[in-house]
Amino acid sequence: MSQDRVLCSSNGLTDYRGHSKLLGDAKLENIPARPGDFPSKEISSELAKRELGWEPKVSFEQGLRRYIEWYRKEEEKRESKWAQFDEILKS
């Protein structure tokens, strides 16, 4: 599929309450667009395929899962570094 709707519920990424299956207790909700926001709700790799010959190697959902996993690991690293720094300051 060349187009994926970013609206997570259409990709099955939320449960019936609107809670994210990927983010645990985080609740996803639609909010009005802010000035400067991207006006479209659809994404497509067609231009990259046509102009650059590029095609995605993973699905939108798998890419999102990988990103969230990476982000959580990076956040754990940051928290660990701050905890170490805090211990140094306390000693």
Strand content: 5-15%
Topology pattern, helix = H, strand = E = EEHH
- Total DSSP helices: 2
Categorize the overall geometry: elongated
Number of domains: 1
Strands in their spatial order, largest beta sheet: 1-2
Low-confidence stretches: 1-11
Which structural class best describes the helix and strand composition? mainly alpha
How helix-rich are the residues, as a percent range? 40-55%
Largest sheet data: 2 strands, antiparallel
Termini gap? 56 Å
Describe the protein.
The protein has 91 residues and is mostly helical. The chain has one domain. The protein is 42% helix and 7% strand. It has two helices and two strands; from the N terminus they run ββαα. It has helices at residues 46-52, 60-90; strands spanning 3-5, 42-44. Strands 1-2 form a two-stranded antiparallel sheet. The longest helix is centred in the last third of the chain and has 31 residues, at 60-90. The chain is elongated and about 60 Å long. It starts with a strand and ends with a helix. The model is unreliable at 1-11 (pLDDT under 50).
